[in-house]
Amino acid sequence: MQSTSLSCVTFPLFILFPQQSGLYEYKIFGGLADIPPKLCADVYMDLDFRKKWDQYVKELYEETYDGEKVIYWEVKYPFPLSNRDYVYIRESREMDVQGRKIWVVLAKSVAVPQCPEKPGIIRVKSYKQSLVIESDGKAGSKVYMYYFDNPGGMIPTWLVNWAAKSGVPAFLKDIQKACLNYSKTHGC
């Protein structure tokens, strides 16, 4: 188990058994002190704002195909690797569970003929993520995330697993910073 900290953020990283691909699934539990759960959920769902704070976004938009909202996301990869793109659906719900407000976001990759693969970019065909956010009982949030993707291509499995192991906690640190900026720019 690995633990990372940034001032008031702590996320232990649990690594699950590998999929048939040899890649790992990740579970993260942690807290974002002083970040209310609604703000965290709003930042996570705001694709336009994500383009401003996520340095790895090359292209990101949502379209409706056959009555279903689909997200296209191209991610910048470092040279000499090819960029990756994702086509996925996601659903967000605000729930009341025994008096506790809980925000749940589910996402998974889909194949959509209107979003064909692009030359020079590798399509991530296996992606799934679950995010649960609730109040920590104070001014902050408790966060649970489950994450898996298979970036495809010729990247060694050990490198993919290392990147996910360090990248997922780094993403959560970035979202904390984004939440602080979001509340300043959106008057939250």
UniProtKB/TrEMBL annotation:
Name all START domain ranges: 26-184
Please tell me whether the keyword DNA-binding is annotated for this protein: no
Gene Ontology CC annotation, any one: cytosol
InterPro entries to which the protein is assigned, alphabetical: START-like_dom_sf (IPR023393), START_lipid-bd_dom (IPR002913), START_lipid_transfer (IPR051213)
Give UniProt keywords alphabetically: Acetylation, Cytoplasm, Lipid transport, Lipid-binding, Phosphoprotein, Transport
Q: Where in the cell is it found?
A: Cytoplasm
Mitochondrion among the record's keywords?
no
User: Sorted alphabetically, which Gene3D superfamilies does this protein's record hold?
Assistant: 3.30.530.20
UniProt GO MF annotations = phosphatidylcholine binding; phosphatidylcholine transporter activity
Query: Subunit structure, briefly?
Result: Interacts with ACOT13/THEM2.
Q: What is this protein called?
A: Phosphatidylcholine transfer protein
Q: What is the lineage of its organism?
A: Eukaryota, Metazoa, Chordata, Craniata, Vertebrata
